[in-house]
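As a representative case, we now present a protein record of this kind.
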Amino acid sequence: MPGNLIRRLLLLGALAIIGIIFIQSYWLLKTWDLKDKEFDQTVHIMLRHVAERIAVSQKTELPKTQLIQRQSSNYYAVNVNSPINASVLEDFLYSEMEKHSLNTNFEYAVYDCFSKDLVYGNFCEMGEQTDKLAKAEELPTLDNLEYYFVVRFPSRESFLLSNMNMTLAFAAIAICSVLFFLYSIWVIVKQKRLSELQRDFINNMTHEFKTPISSIKIAADVLAKDPSIQDNKRLSNYSKIIIDQNQRLNDQVEKVLNIARLEKDNLELKKEEFDLTSELRNIIENEKIKLRDGQLTYDLVDGPVIVRADKLHFTNVISNILDNAVKYSKEEPEVHLSMTQKGNKIRIAIADKGIGIPKEQTKEVFDKFYRVSTGDIHDVKGFGLGLFYVKNISQAHGWIPKLESELGKGTTFTLDILV
């Protein structure tokens, strides 16, 4: 994966995470604020009903203003114009709490006009398991009221949280998603680092191979031209084997280096105009020299067909396809190359009568290092880079490569080129 793409992914990921955290935080605070207002309104209504029931029982009138005063987030004072019976007050509180579905524990106290203190009433449980140590040791008095009682909700926070289950569940899912995304980014970065190490190692190794390969080629050519070697048939054959195998090794190293250039995104196409028909004929004649058994036939368009492309890479693409056609054929390869022209499109088709490729593997043959399985037989050599190279060079030129194959009957590779 290119470094620029990784950086963009990290940037977009960071923005997405910041956005998710901001939105979730906003909605959590918004939901908490709404639940708090809902709780406060419900408590006001409940305490008003309690005050009205006290006023009816005492046959007094309630104050017109400041009947209920919220002293803190969970502490309320209720102003009445008559003495309050604590036992009756507790019954009224229980009744109204149940009626308004306020299933949270509470404690209350009644102001004593004689001692000018709040006389603690009781800690009342509404089904919640709350530590009674949360009970206030001393409830503050109010100087501006004469007959009043106070109610405190020690477990208000837990009650509000219990009513935010859905919101908290979505927040938990969002957090898990963010953590999974961070883990995925970490895995991607780690894999990229390992991939870069592997690529650098392969590049360095193949570059180191170039010097001994060149030295072997020079030495082998000198030996092959020596008269004493040429007169000795056995030594002459050995020198040819050295030259052939050295060339084969050089070709494999060049493939790896070409793939490395592709992966670094610094492939430079040196496009030039050349005759496609003539170039194909030259490629086929060169491949025929390598082919010891079998036959390689061709059917080309009459007359020159001028295209603009990288001649070296085009030669490598066709040679790779022909090489695969020969390698994956049976004992005597039968390969046919045809060239047809329709309008401004040239189609090059290379067909063989080889072992074929299973249908489920035809989409994977263009992947890097992928090689078609030949069972327990490993007589086909290579790195699985040929068609990967073909695909990337074709895409760089705007060509369309296609592959059709039937197991046991052969494979046809087509390449559409616009002229």
In short: The first strand starts at residue 68 and ends at 72. Residues 179-263 form one domain. The longest helix spans residues 165-225.
